[in-house]
Design goal:
About 30% of the residues lie in helices and about 15% in strands. By secondary structure, it is an alpha+beta fold. Helix 2 crosses helix 3. Residues about 45-50 have low confidence and may be disordered.
Length: about 140
């Protein structure tokens, strides 16, 4: 499970990412990413600034992938586990939506990990923007 502050939950947030975000694709996954405009807010009675807003991530998987909820939930669990492993390397201040394509039902954890790393490097969300293997 991803931490609460790293989850994209509301329909309006998903809609904003779909409408305004950039899109990158691989054979099994599609990534939509939207960068937050950083507006520092002053803490009351202090000269310090709030830290950057954490990156929030959502996963979208339709019944076109598989009609069985068991298969869809297994894919979501594998993607969440891969993202949890990559979370320390992801820059702050992004909203990300991972869309699962129907071809993903034959993927395993390591293929999801590679595809996510490739997508996040293309969008330059990873620290260092490297395309080499992080994990």
């Amino acid at each position: 499970m991803l931490p609460d502050e790293s989850r994209l939950r509301h329909h309006k947030d998903f809609s904003a990412v779909y409408q305004k975000g950039i899109r990158k694709n691989t054979s099994h996954l599609s990534l939509r990413a939207l960068r937050h405009m950083q507006q520092p807010q002053l803490i009351e009675h202090s000269d310090q600034l709030y830290p950057d807003r954490p990156t929030r991530i959502g996963i979208s998987i339709s019944k076109k992938v598989n009609k069985g909820a068991v298969v869809r939930n297994r894919i979501k669990r594998q993607i969440r586990a891969a993202l949890r492993q990559m979370l320390p390397y992801i820059s702050k201040g992004w909203d990300l939506v991972i869309v699962v394509k129907p071809t993903a039902k034959q993927c395993n954890y390591y293929e999801f990990l590679q595809q996510l790393e490739k997508l996040l490097a293309q969008v330059e969300v990873l620290h260092g923007y490297s395309r080499g293997s992080l994990l």
